[in-house]
């Protein structure tokens, strides 16, 4: 992790399907968040969103292929935290994921992770073919 002149902390990590690597990623991000005095709500929300994003990238993006990895990048400043989760899969159309809150989809497990990410993060964008997820948490949104 490095600090820049603007007072932000940046980092990146490559994650395979290992729980230890996900924990290491979570710890690195949490350290940057604590340094910038993000509260417990933010720590919880961001931890959950990163876990969902990385697990989706491993399971759905990389199809649990142990030879593929997920790249995680972050930048944390006093007022926001931005994350990029990039898998090596073919991508997907986020608009095609069923809404898990609709009655006809309550029994379908798909879409819950994206729903949680969208609920906890201030901004969520999919880039390229859908294998690059950008998530932004703004401090004012957590008030």
What key phrases describe this protein's structure?
globular, 6-stranded antiparallel sheet, 143 residues, Heat Shock Protein 90, 24% strand, 6 strands, alpha+beta
Verbal overview:
The protein is α+β, with helices and mostly antiparallel strands and 143 residues long. The protein has one domain: Histidine kinase-like ATPase, C-terminal domain (Heat Shock Protein 90, 2-Layer Sandwich). It contains three helices and six strands. The chain has helices at residues 19-35, 40-61, 112-120; strands at residues 2-3, 9-15, 70-76, 80-86, 123-127, 132-138. It has a six-stranded antiparallel beta sheet, with helices on one face. It is globular and about 45 Å long. The model has no long low-confidence stretch (mean pLDDT 89).
Given this structure, which CATH class is correct? Alpha Beta
Task: Please tell me what the overall shape is.
Answer: globular
What is the average per-residue confidence, as pLDDT, rounded to a whole number? 89
Query: Would you tell me which CATH topology applies?
Result: Heat Shock Protein 90
Task: Report the β-strand fraction as a percent range.
Answer: 15-25%
* Alpha plus pi helix count: 3
CATH architecture: 2-Layer Sandwich
Q: Tell me the number of strands.
A: 6
Adjacency order of strands in the biggest sheet: 1-2-3-4-6-5
Low-confidence stretches: none
Q: What class would the helix/strand composition place it in?
A: alpha+beta
Number of domains: 1
Termini separation comes to 27 Å
Largest sheet: 6 strands, antiparallel
Helix content: 25-40%
Note the run of SSEs as H and E. EEHHEEHEE
- Quaternary structure: single chain
Evaluate the radius of gyration.
Answer: 15 Å
The CATH homologous superfamily: Histidine kinase-like ATPase, C-terminal domain
């Amino acid at each position: 992790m490095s600090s820049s002149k603007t007072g932000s902390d940046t980092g990146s990590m490559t994650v395979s399907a290992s729980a230890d690597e996900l924990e290491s990623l979570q710890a690195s991000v949490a350290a940057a968040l604590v340094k910038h005095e993000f509260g417990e709500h933010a720590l919880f929300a961001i931890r959950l969103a990163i876990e969902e994003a990385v697990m989706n990238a491993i399971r759905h993006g990389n199809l649990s292929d142990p030879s593929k990895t997920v790249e995680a990048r972050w930048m944390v400043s006093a007022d926001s935290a931005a994350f990029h989760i990039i898998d090596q899969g073919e991508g997907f159309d986020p608009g095609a994921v069923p809404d898990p809150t609709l009655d006809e989809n309550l029994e379908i497990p798909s879409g819950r992770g994206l729903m949680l990410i969208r609920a906890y993060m201030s901004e969520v964008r999919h880039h390229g073919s859908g294998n690059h997820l950008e998530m932004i948490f703004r401090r004012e949104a957590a008030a």
